Amino acid sequence: QVQLVESGGGLVQAGGSLRLSCVCSGRSGRTFSSFSMGWFRQAPGKEREFVIAISWSGGSTYYADSVKGRFTISRDNAENTVYLQMNRLKTEDTAVYYCAATRAAFGLVSGEYLYWGQGTQVTVSS
């Protein structure tokens, strides 16, 4: 079974930075490198939305227009971890951020993802 655990969320002022981590553990941690990984977010009263994704090898990345130039995704397959570096944060980035795993080549919609973490809260104050 795949277990994803996010960390790194918190309260930050607008313009600041945060780095989220997502560790894949459990028996399937050994197959982390076979998953493409994504980050989604859900703000209060809104639908969950795609933020960013990275292919299994790390060779391809995909960004929502709203985060281009500010957010970066990376992965360390040796550590079974995917990272989301968030810079120049805006108040509209406030949301619960979820890490997810898919066996597809990449996934831009939540339905393509099989496994999800419990989420980590990011709050950006003005």
Structure write-up:
The protein has no helices and eleven strands. The protein is mainly β. Strands 2, 4, 5, 6, 9, 10 and 11 form a seven-stranded mixed beta sheet that branches. It has a four-stranded antiparallel beta sheet with strand order 1-3-8-7, with no helix packed on it. The protein is 0% helix and 48% strand.
Give a topology summary:
Layout: E1 3-7, E2 10-13, E3 18-25, E4 36-42, E5 49-54, E6 61-63, E7 71-76, E8 81-86, E9 95-102, E10 115-116, E11 120-125
Parallel strand pairs: 2-11
Antiparallel strand pairs: 1-3, 3-8, 4-5, 4-9, 5-6, 7-8, 9-10, 9-11
Element order, helices and strands?
A: EEEEEEEEEEE
Proportion of β residues?
Answer: over 45%
Stretches where pLDDT falls below 50 for ≥5 residues? none
Question: What is the helix tally?
Answer: 0
Query: How much helical structure, as a percent, in the residues?
Result: under 10%
Q: Could you give a quick summary of the protein structure above?
A:
The chain is built from no helices and eleven strands. It is an all-beta fold and 126 residues long.
List the keywords:
mainly beta, 7-stranded mixed beta sheet, 11 strands, 126 residues, globular, 48% strand
